[in-house]
Amino acid sequence: MLKALSPLLGPDLLHVLAAMGHGDEIVIADANFPAATLARRLVRLEGASASAALEAITSLVPLDQYVEAPALVMAVVGEPDAAPPTYGDFQGVLEAAEGHPVPLTRLERSAFYERARAAFAVVATGDRRLYANIIIAKGVVAPRGSVG
Asked: What percent of the chain lies above the pLDDT cut of 70?
């Protein structure tokens, strides 16, 4: 345990977050996601929800402000316009972390899996809610006082 850090941010996840560069993507996945199959690097947080993992990660990692879609979710199969409750949870977490609304871009299931396969890492949670999967792009962590 470290002072002022979420207990979800263990050594493996902290290493992954520190190693990521600007524009790298990380997947936060639910319990049904094929994480071990798709991950280049896999961190397991079986006791956490995807929303809690997202909150812990975004307490340290800003979203990429230079890409069109810094937050991607898996679209509901057969109902691409549907909005499961997880979407609202994710938006609330991202808005609190970023200080402004963050739109979620929906990707069709196969496209989401392909994007996940190319991601820097996958965080596999124990979240049993359907469609509790999100990909975020890491932004720049600028020095204090810099403009950008």
From this structure: 98
Q: What is the pLDDT of residue 147?
A: 67
- Residue 105 clears pLDDT 60, i.e. is over it: yes
Put simply, whether the predicted model's pTM sits higher than 0.85 gets the answer yes
71 CB neighbour count, 10 Å cutoff:
22
Specify whether the CB–CB gap between 34 and 133 falls below 8 A: no
- Catalytically active residues are 22
- Taking Cα atoms as reference points, which of 55, 54, 48 lies closest to residue 128? 48
Residues 6 or more apart from 26 whose CB is under 8 A from it? 16, 17, 20, 57, 61, 119, 120, 121, 122, 123, 135, 136, 138
Domains of the chain: 22-137 (3.40.1650.10)
